[in-house]
Amino acid sequence: MRDVFVVSGGVSKFAKARPDRTFQPMVKEAYDYVLQDIGLEFKQAAELIEGSTASYFSDHFGRQLMGGAMTTDYLGLCPKHNKRIEGGGATGGLNFQAGWESVASGRFDIVLTYGWETMSHVNTWKGNEFIALASDVSFDYPVGGFYSGYYAMMVTRHMKEYGTTVEQLGLVSVKNHNNAFYNPYAQKRMKINIEDVRNSEMVAWPLTMLDICTMSDGAAAVLFASEEGMKKLEKATGNTIKPTKVVGVGGGMDAMRMADRPHGKVPLLPHENAEDYKNLKYPGVHSFRSGRNASIEAYKMAGIADPINELDFIELHDAYTSSEIQTYEDMGLCKYGEGGGFVESGAPFMPGLDYGYKLPEQGKIPVNPSGGLIACGHPVGATGLMQAVFGHWQCQGTIDKHFGDKTLQIKDCNRGAIHSHAGTGTYVTVSILEKGF
Q1: pTM of the predicted structure, to 2 decimals
Q2: Could you read off the pLDDT of 14-32 as tens digits, one per residue?
Q3: 3-state DSSP of 231-250
Q4: Which of 419, 318, 418, 330 is nearest to 378 (CA)?
Q5: Could you give phi then psi for residue 108, rounded to 5 degrees?
């Protein structure tokens, strides 16, 4: 395989609705940002980009098949290679890895990945129905299988097994919303406290409206290149590129129905001990086996033995506050069962920010410094790419340039992870980004 670099990224504004845009020009907002950030002209890009991958979760939201073909045409990239990537909530993360593969394999030197969703085109209840079609429509869906119900079930089990509290869930929401206050691309920029979370409308106990991500319209794009591709881009623009290197990728998949997932031993990360889990019924409904597998693969490829001490940040798929806590454990930031205590310690909060609570280990490893899905929004086909763009800017040290505010810039940032998740852990991807200059 060849080394692969992220050379540029761009996002559109994420919003509850974008009535000013159809999906093609919304994607072009992100694409234009990609080009402008490295000084590449539109005609130059059309010549140099050799292929692209498109991601959107549902044909139903836009009532349009072949959206990838239409958008590639709109971006002026026809008749070059393009393919669509789809995998539920992990669609954007899978697309990111598809772009990486296209360059790592040697097939292309310069590849564009882009994704979007226009979820505002239907009522919220209809959108939840469409999303629920990503569950097993023969078994789960007929008995009321909406995802908020699934995650409520999982977190109540986590609470019973490990003593996780609603206040700990609330802290995740406080962290992510307060981070997003400084992110101009985020859908929900507001400062809140635990009481606000608990007093918001109940959806499926114990999850309230502020425990759950929002439906969104938005787009994101990432430009990949090999070393040779970077030389071509620098020659075309006359500018020096400051890339992020993709040093690890991992993926996992599990049975659609949690009842079909066999119990067994916990797959261990290098820093873990089997004795810690000798009495744990794994994965149960409290853990994502696919997330653990994706983490193991990505860490191994990147040479990471102890993630909490070797990563500077994680952009994590927090569709629910509860799933963020579950994923702390899957990614090895703490032991299984300790996710609630981990957020309570303050370890995943940004250093230096005042969240209104005593956080003894604040800033140890910031998780979702951008605000995550809960606050930025979750336009499904774009979400994993949004995480990659924000991760790229963190490793570049250019948050101030892009956000107009340096508050969310992690000091001396070198390496971070992006995590994308579908269904109840049906697909999960983990990718590791590292400063490449």
Answers
A1: 0.97
A2: 999 999 999 999 999 999 9
A3: HHHHHHHCCCCCCEEEEEEE
A4: 318
A5: -130, 155
